[in-house]
Amino acid sequence: MEMEKNTDMEQDPAVIDQEIPNGVVTAPILEEPEDAQPETEVETVRRERDEFLDLLQRKQAEFENYRKRVDREKSELRVSVKSELMEQILDVVDACERGLETLRQSEGENLGLFVEGYELLLKQLKTILDRYEVSEIPGVGSVFAPNFHEAAIHEISDDHEEGEIMEEYRKGYTIADRLLRPSQVKVAAPAED
Questions:
Q1: How confident is residue 28, by pLDDT bands cut at 50, 70 and 90?
Q2: What are the helix (H) ranges across the chain?
Q3: Under a CB-based contact definition with an 8 Å cutoff, are residues 117 and 100 in contact?
Q4: Which residues lie closer than 8 Å to 155 by C-beta, 6 or more apart?
Q5: Measured on CA atoms in the order 103, 109, 113, 116, is the torsion positive or negative?
Q6: Residues 91/129, Cβ–Cβ less than 8 Å
Q7: Which class is 136-193 in CATH?
Q8: Cα–Cα distances in Å, from 168 out to 86, 165, 171, 185, 188?
Q9: Do residues 129 and 88 lie in contact, with contact meaning Cβ atoms separated by under 8 Å?
Q10: Strands 15-16 vs 165-170: parallel, antiparallel or unpaired
Q11: Contact 181, 150 (CB under 8 A)
């Protein structure tokens, strides 16, 4: 049974009847005015553009942060590798300094050549330390700093201010402004009343 087309319906330009091939009339479809559709498309394009711009800016910021983090990690790795090598060289520097001090205190005719040899060796080692940004931590006469000094002994002294380093047992070093090895020191303590 075929349904007939409803002829009583007013013909509104915004309402279009759709006919199905069997002649059945469906619900009317409302069309939007032609002038409203371009604004919607423009708004959609603008919204999508803004979303893509925002996404691009976020990805650029993420990549910049990633690049900075990788550079920082590379730098930290370099310092770490240098530190391990320099710690071993510091043991040789300490041995040379002790040997040189012992030779200077010893008496003998032929020791002058040995002293010169130790001085040259020590100078070369310190040149290597300088090249790798290794520097000595201030010792005797400076103020005790717990981040750089290790207090081996606290000694009461009227001749020194409280916290002043009186003696250095082992030199401390930093590498690229990081602690490589703390100084072992004797620190002045105030006299008790």
A1: low
A2: 36-105, 111-131
A3: no
A4: 166, 186, 187, 188, 189
A5: positive
A6: no
A7: mainly beta
A8: 20, 7, 7, 4, 12
A9: no
A10: unpaired
A11: no
Q: Which residue has the tokens 């919204």?
A: 47
- Kindly list the distances between the CA atom of residue 54 and the CA atoms of 7, 42, 45, 63, 64, in Å, as whole numbers in the listed order: 53, 18, 14, 14, 15
Q: Which of helix, strand or coil describes residue 181?
A: strand
Residues ≥6 apart with Cβ < 8 Å to 158: 191
Q: For residues 118 and 125, what is the distance between their CA atoms, to the nearest angstrom?
A: 10
pLDDT tens-digit profile of 33-68? 555 455 688 888 888 999 999 999 999 999 999 999
Side chain identity at residue 29, one-letter code: I
What's the Cα-to-Cα distance from 9 to each of 5, 12, 28, rounded to whole Å? 9, 9, 10
Structure tokens at 4: 């007939």
> In whole angstroms, what separates CA 153 from the centre of its chain?
36
Helix (H) and strand (E) counts in the chain: 2, 8
